[in-house]
Design goal:
The chain starts with 8 loop residues before the first helix and ends with a strand. The longest helix has 20 residues. The protein is an alpha/beta fold. Pfam families: Methyltransf_31, WHD_Rv2258c.
């Protein structure tokens, strides 16, 4: 039976090859030179500004011009859409990181007897931190749309208008979300926790440098949090973390301990369908599943009990899991929680 959804595999592979070319152009500075130039430039001008070998620059320009990424007019080169290409070029730099994962991924995929994986490569963690800084993800506008309605609902349900509350950013990475929360809710206290020591150090240094007195960073081990945090937090936020956890049961148990009675957990996670057929042509599945194959799923199987959720963990199964851990999923502003969405809000069942 013919399948109209079948993609052009040859084009997909060709696009991947060109993405690698775009990535090296970003890494060596060609992309930045073209973006920063007010007027189109010759190959020689680009090579001089980027301090690169002219012949390699010419070959890169020929490749990108043939693909339509770079435009040429009277022997001078330019980007037709600088902002779009700048963002796409940065994303393409994840491909060499994927390539470095190949030997480890091949090894664990061939292990049929048990779930094995590997932790997030440090380069991938740094890339994610840089991506969030460059994008609108986790900025003040994003909070306005995605977090503020939940906090408003919380205080409405608890019949209080407290100006001061405690927020835990679980899996904070390099801290963009934590700093945005601290800025938006300046009378409240924000804690960011992560297992990555480099990210925690970066967060602490930034807080000290910018005199941010209401945001703190703590490194945690195995998801365990300080005993003094019992019933400390009004809100726990985890963004793009839930599917990565090798031992989510332990994390959920810790959440039940550190949440105040009635407190909310706000989880942001790629909303992939449990029914794989529904993911055909579905943009979130198309955009995010490659990251899971190389980093998210291996991390979720990097240590015992190696649950192995990854981004492919279906939204519907995710809701069932949350409820199995003693929580109830909440509908904010009357939203229909049955259909996949990025934000899942839940609190302990009464």
């Amino acid at each position: 039976m013919a399948d109209d959804s079948f993609c052009d595999v040859e084009k997909m592979v060709n696009d991947g090859l060109h993405s690698m070319v775009l990535a090296i152009g970003y890494k060596v500075g060609i992309v930045t030179v073209i973006i920063d130039s007010v007027e189109p430039c010759t190959a020689e001008e680009i090579s001089n500004k980027a301090n690169l070998n002219k012949r390699y620059v010419e070959e890169w320009l020929i490749c990108m011009t043939a693909k339509g990424v770079v435009k040429i007019d009277d022997g001078k080169y330019y980007f037709p859409n600088k902002k779009q290409i700048s963002e796409a070029a940065f994303v393409s730099t994840m491909l060499p990181i994927f390539a470095e994962c190949f030997p480890d991924l091949e090894k664990v995929m061939k292990n049929k007897t048990e779930n094995k994986g590997y932790p997030f490569p440090q380069k991938a963690l740094v890339w994610e931190g840089q991506y969030k800084e460059l994008s609108s993800f986790h900025d003040v506008t994003w909070l306005e749309d995605n977090v503020k309605p939940v906090i408003k609902s919380y205080f409405k349900d608890n019949k209080t208008n407290a100006a001061t509350f405690n927020i835990l950013d679980f899996g904070c990475g390099y801290g963009k979300l934590a700093f945005s929360l601290a800025k938006t809710y300046s009378n409240s206290l924000v804690w960011g926790v992560d297992i990555d020591a480099a990210a925690i150090d970066a967060g602490r240094n930034k807080a000290q440098k910018n005199s941010c007195l209401n945001v703190f960073f703590e490194k945690i081990v195995d998801g365990n949090m300080p005993d003094v945090w019992k019933e400390k937090f009004d809100f726990i936020i985890m963004s793009d973390v839930l599917h990565d956890l090798p031992d989510p049961n332990t994390i959920m148990a810790n959440f039940r301990t550190v949440l105040k009675p009635g407190g909310y957990v706000i989880a942001f996670d790629p909303p992939i369908y449990t029914d794989h057929k529904k993911n055909i042509g579905y943009n979130d599945a198309i955009d995010f599943m490659p990251y899971s194959v190389f980093t998210c799923l291996p991390n979720s199987m990097s240590e015992k009990p190696a649950i192995g959720h990854g981004i492919g963990w279906g939204y519907e199964d995710k809701l069932k899991y949350i409820e199995s851990q003693g929580f109830q999923v909440l509908a904010i502003d009357g939203e229909d929680v049955k259909f996949p969405k990025w934000r899942i809000v839940f609190q302990q069942s009464v």
